[in-house]
């Protein structure tokens, strides 16, 4: 790995599966007779806000009971050690809205902000009146007032289907400047995240998939190691 300098890592639900957070596929994408697309959309929120808020309150509570696993910890070690080892940058982009990557990084004394949450975060609330984002651990179902403006207009700070993911310019630049693109625990079913590996491959960047099984984008990967993230990720990092 040592001739490589800059590494971009993209993770998905599979990296948190062994922490007890169900993947979209485990539940078949179905949640209480609702397709995820039917609860994770601005239209669903307009149509039935209580259903959507309960969906995220349930998941937000679940995430706070979970702990980072060996895959999260190995990725945090790489973020800490790679600059000295390989001399380059590790950019960690996650589709996950849990904070397990952040907690693994914090446990190693790495500062905040080392994780790009392109689809948002459970532990953040977004005020649609004043646009403020506030760290949030409690429920939103009782529409509590926004700590900044007092309006009762808080929604989960989550990127829903049909909404533009966060920090796309930063992510695209990191992919363009990468020597290696690694995808961990993602099915490659949701865009634009699922398109990053093709962009990397077309730029001649090395690409590696670490996943339980081949993903939908498997044809774009030069290499693949299939197995549980808690095993294949530490083995790859060491
Ligand atoms: C369904 C899909 C076809 N639809 C889309 O992609 C849509 C539409 C679309 C856009 N471009 C396209 C191009 C083609 C086709 C469709 C589209 N995309 C969007 O709507 C995006 C927004 C998408 C983001 C939606 N929000 C999420 N999450 C937050 C919510 C929430 O979490 O509730 S997406 C959500 O689903 C995705 C789930 O995928 P995975 O994480 O990969 O999970 P999955 O369960 O599928 O797979 C798990 C994998 O892990 C593996 N695994 C399991 N256990 C383990 C284990 N133990 N170890 C290792 N691996 C393991 C399994 O084998 C499996 O491979 C993640 O991205 C996740 O974040 N927005 C947008 O395009 O905006 C436009 C726009 C443009 C300009 C201006 C304004 C707007």
Automatic annotation (TrEMBL):
Catalyzed reaction equations: N(6)-acetyl-L-lysyl-[protein] + NAD(+) + H2O = 2''-O-acetyl-ADP-D-ribose + nicotinamide + L-lysyl-[protein]; N(6)-succinyl-L-lysyl-[protein] + NAD(+) + H2O = 2''-O-succinyl-ADP-D-ribose + nicotinamide + L-lysyl-[protein]
Active site location: 119 (proton acceptor)
Residues annotated as binding Zn(2+): 127, 130, 146, 149
Record: residues binding substrate: 56, 59
Top-level EC class: transferase
Location(s) in or outside the cell: Cytoplasm
Organism whose genome encodes this protein: Novosphingobium organovorum
UniProt xrefs under Pfam families: SIR2
Organism domain of life: Bacteria
Classification via InterPro entries: DHS-like_NAD/FAD-binding_dom, NAD-dep_sirtuin_deacylases, Sirtuin, Sirtuin_cat_small_dom_sf, Sirtuin_class_III, Ssirtuin_cat_dom
Entry function: NAD-dependent lysine deacetylase and desuccinylase that specifically removes acetyl and succinyl groups on target proteins. Modulates the activities of several proteins which are inactive in their acylated form.
Key words of the record: Cytoplasm, Metal-binding, NAD, Transferase, Zinc
Cofactor(s) named in the record: Zn(2+)
Entry EC number(s): 2.3.1.286
Xref: CDD domains: SIRT5_Af1_CobB
Classification via PROSITE patterns: SIRTUIN (PS50305)
Family per record: Belongs to the sirtuin family. Class III subfamily.
Protein name, as recorded: NAD-dependent protein deacylase
Primary localization: cytoplasm
This protein's record includes keyword Nuclease: no
Entry keyword Endoplasmic reticulum: no
SUPFAM superfamilies on file: DHS-like NAD/FAD-binding domain
């Amino acid at each position: 790995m040592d001739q490589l300098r800059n590494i971009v890592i993209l993770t998905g639900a599979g990296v948190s599966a062994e922490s007890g957070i169900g993947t979209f596929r485990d539940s078949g994408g179905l949640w209480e007779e609702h397709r995820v697309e039917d609860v994770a959309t601005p239209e669903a929120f307009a149509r039935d806000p209580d259903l959507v808020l309960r969906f995220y309150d349930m998941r937000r509570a679940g995430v706070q009971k979970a702990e980072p696993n060996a895959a999260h910890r190995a990725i945090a070690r790489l973020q800490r050690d790679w600059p000295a080892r390989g001399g380059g940058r590790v950019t960690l982009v996650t589709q996950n809205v849990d904070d397990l990557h952040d907690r693994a990084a914090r446990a190693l004394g790495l500062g905040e902000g080392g994780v790009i949450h392109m689809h948002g975060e459970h532990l953040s609330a977004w005020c649609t009146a004043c646009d403020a984002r506030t760290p949030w651990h409690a429920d939103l179902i009782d529409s509590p007032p926004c700590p900044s403006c007092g309006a009762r207009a808080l929604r989960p700070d989550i990127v829903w289907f049909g909404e533009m993911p966060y920090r796309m310019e930063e992510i695209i630049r990191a992919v363009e400047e990468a020597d290696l693109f690694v995808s961990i625990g993602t099915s490659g079913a949701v865009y634009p995240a699922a398109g990053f590996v093709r962009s990397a491959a077309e730029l001649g960047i090395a690409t590696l998939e670490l996943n339980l099984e081949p993903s939908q984008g498997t044809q774009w990967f030069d290499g693949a190691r299939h197995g549980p993230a808690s095993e294949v990720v530490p083995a790859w990092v060491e």
